[in-house]
Specification:
Layout (H helix, E strand, L loop, with lengths): L2 E5 L8 H10 L3 E6 L6 E3 L2 E5 L6 H4 L2 H14 L3 E5 L1 H6 L10 E6 L21 H6 L8 E4 L2 H8 L8 E3 L18 E6 L8 H13 L4 E6 L5 H9 L7 E5 L3 H9 L3 E3 L16 H8 L4 E4 L4 H4 L6 E4 L4 H13 L1 H18 L2 H12 L11 E5 L7 H16 L3 E3 L5 H7 L7 H6 L3 E5 L14 H16 L2 E7 L7 H13 L2 E4 L2 H10 L6 E3 L7 H4 L10 E4 L6 H6 L3 H14 L4 E5 L15 E4 L3 H8 L4 E4 L2 H9 L4 E5 L2 H9 L6 E3 L5 H13 L4 H19 L2
Parallel strand pairs: 1-2, 1-5, 2-4, 5-6, 6-7, 7-8, 9-10, 9-12, 10-11, 12-13, 13-14, 15-16, 15-17, 17-18, 18-19, 19-20, 21-22, 21-24, 22-23, 24-25, 25-26
Antiparallel strand pairs: 3-4
Helix pairs in contact: 7-8, 7-12, 18-19
Amino acid sequence: MKIAFITNSYKSPTELWLWRQVDYMRMYIGYIGVLESSQRKLEEGINIIGLSEESSATYLNSFFLLRKLEKLEMEFGIDVYYIHYLTNFFLIKDFFLYGTRKVFVHCHGFDLTFDRKFERDSTSNFHSEEYLEFCKSLPTSVKYIADSVHAKMLLVNRGLSANHIKVVHFGVPIEGLSPYKSFLPVKILFLGRLVDFKGPDLTIRAFEIACERGMNAELLIVGDGPLLITCQLLKSRLNFFDRVKFLGVLPYDVAKNVREKCHIFTAHNIKGSLTNQEEAYGVSIVEAMGAGLPVVTGKSGGVKETVLHERTGFLFNPGDIEAHANYLLKLSENHELRERMSREALRHVEANFTMEIERNVLYELFGLDRPIGNHRESAIIVGPYRYHNFGDDVIGAIIAQYLKSRNYNVCIPSFRKENAVWLGIEYCDNLDFLIRKAKLLVIGGGGLLGDAGIVPDDYYRELALKAALKGQFEGVRVAVTGIGAGPLIQSSSRKLALDIANLADKIGVRDTDSKNFLQTLGVEKRKLIEGADLALLTPYYLNFSRSSLSKIAIQFDISHYEDAKVNNPNVNDIFTSVCSYARRNFSNVVLVSNGNFESEVSKFSTECDTLSYYDLEKFLTYFSGVRAVFTSHLHLAIVAYSLQIPCFSIYVREKTKRFYEQIGHPERAVDLKIASISDFERLIEQAGNASWSNKDGRRLRTLQKRASKLLSIL
C-alpha cells in the first residue's frame, strides 16, 4: 500500500509531528506533495514534490493541478491520500469528487476556526467565503481526523456526524528526564509560536507578578511570531527584565537541550483576542510533559485534554494572570511538588501520547500492517556480522529497524558498536544470555545459506544453527529472512542449511532460484516466502543525510576474483583499464570498498577520492551522493538502485546477474569469467551518461513491495 502525504510544506520547524509521522510510515509513503512551487527532490529516500506552479487558488483548482495529481497517482501507485489541514483538502477537493479514492483529512486548529481573523488585521476574515460555504456540507465519503476532542467538536458543530471523525493525538518522544532538579534559579520555559492564543505576552506579565512575590526564576522564550515585538517591548518595561530571555527559533535538538535544563513549562492558552483561535492540541505541551516538566497554562481548547489539573500541572481560567502567577510561584518554591508532578507527567504521556500509540491508531485506520503493541520484547538477529561486510550489515540494520518499528528491543551480536549506536539498538556479544531473554530469533543476512567468497566457509551457518537450537530449547520463535540460498558445494554445508531451515517457522528468500534450491534440499514449500533483496528498502528504514557529490563510484578489488582469473586471462587487463580510467577522470571518480580496507584501484590512482566501509551512517551519507556506480559487489549495486542511482557491474556470482535481470537491465551486467576490456569501456561510458527513468522507478517500487514481504513474516 502506498500513501500520498499532502501538506503545506515539508520540514517546517513548527511541524515536528509531520517529521515523526514520515519517519514511522516511510515504508508506505509514495510521495509527499507540498502545496507550493518547488522542484521535485529525493530526501532520505522519499520524493518531495511541489504540486503548484503558482501559489494562487486559481491554479490549485485548475485542470493542470488535477492532471498532475492523476499522473502522480499512476506513477507511485497511490492507494491512500493523507491530507493535512482541511484548508488543503478544500484546494484540491475536485480531484476527489469522483471515484472511490481512500481519503483521510487531518484537521488541526486554524482550519477549524471558522471565524478566524488575521493576526495583523483582526477586522479581516482569514478564510474565504467559498471555504466557509464548503465546510457547511463536508463530503461524507472522506474520513476526518481530529487531533483532539476539542477539534472534533468544532467539526460536529459544523454539522458533520461524529461517526465520520476519528480523534488521533500526536505522539511525542519520551525523553525520560530525571524529574528532580535542585539547582537555582528555577528555569521556566515557553516554547511555541508567539501568537495570541498561546499568550506569550500574558505569560510575561504573570512571570513578573510571581517575581515581585519572591520567585527566584528565569523565563526562557523559544519561538517567533507576530507578537515578538509586543513581547520584547513588554520585557523592556519589567523590573525583572534581565530574567526574561528570548532565544528565537531553535532546531529541535537545541530546543531539546534547553528543555532538559528547565523545571517548568508554561504558556497562557486562551481564545485569541485577535485571531479568535484556541489551541487545538498543543504538541509542545505534551513534549514538555514527556520530558518530565509540569505544565502551567490556561484551561483552553485541547489543552484541557492533555494536562491533568493538580496532577501533571496546573490549569487556570484563561485571562486570570493572578492565578497564573500564583501557580508559577507555588511550583518554583516546592521541589517535592515539582518532583511528584514531573513523575506523573511522564507516566501520563507514556500511557496516552506516545508515537507508538499514534502510529498504531493510524496504521489501523489506513489498513496498514499494524505494529505490535506497546510492550518491549526482545529480538536477536544472528548472521554474518562479525566481518563487517557492507552488504550484510545493511540487511541486518534494515531487519533491526523494522523490528524496532514493531516495538522490539533489538540486538545484533558482534555488530559494530558505531552502527548499533546509530540504529539505537543494544550492543552485546553474549549470544546465550540474549537468547534466554528473547521472544524472537531472526537468522538473516546476505547469502547465509549459500557459498560466498573464494573459499566455502560454514562458520556462520554453524553459528546460526547453534543459535537456532538454543532458541528452540528456550522456547524462542525462530525465523530466517532476507537470505540468498545456494549453491552449496560441500555436503556438510547443505546439511547445515537444511537443519537451520527445519528449525525455522518461516524462511524469506530474495529470489526464485534460492527458493528452488532450498526445496531441492528438502525444505517444506509451506515455509518458503519469496520476495526481493532487503537492501532495496535502504532509504525507507535507514535514516541518513544525502550528499551531492555527482561522481561515479567504482569498486573493483581484483584479489577477490582468484577463481575468475583461472577462466579468464583478461582479468588483469580489465583491472589495468579500470585504474587507467580512474587516473584520467580522478576529479569525477570516487573509489569504493565494501569493507574496512582501501580500494585496490586506489593504489594505482592515488589522486581519486576514496570511500571505505566502516560506519554505516557515514558510508551511506557519502555513497548516496554519487551519480552512478560501477561495482562487482552485489549489495553496493542494490543499495545504489534503492537510492535511484544507476548501477553497472562486472560480476563474479550468479546472484548479481539475477539482480540485474530483476531490475530489467541485464545489459548492465557482464560475467567476469567472459568479460573483456571493451565490456568495461562500454559499461563505464553508459554509467557516465545514465539517468533514472520513470520505468526504473516503477520497477523499484514493485521490488520494494516484494522485499517488504520478507519483513512481514517477522
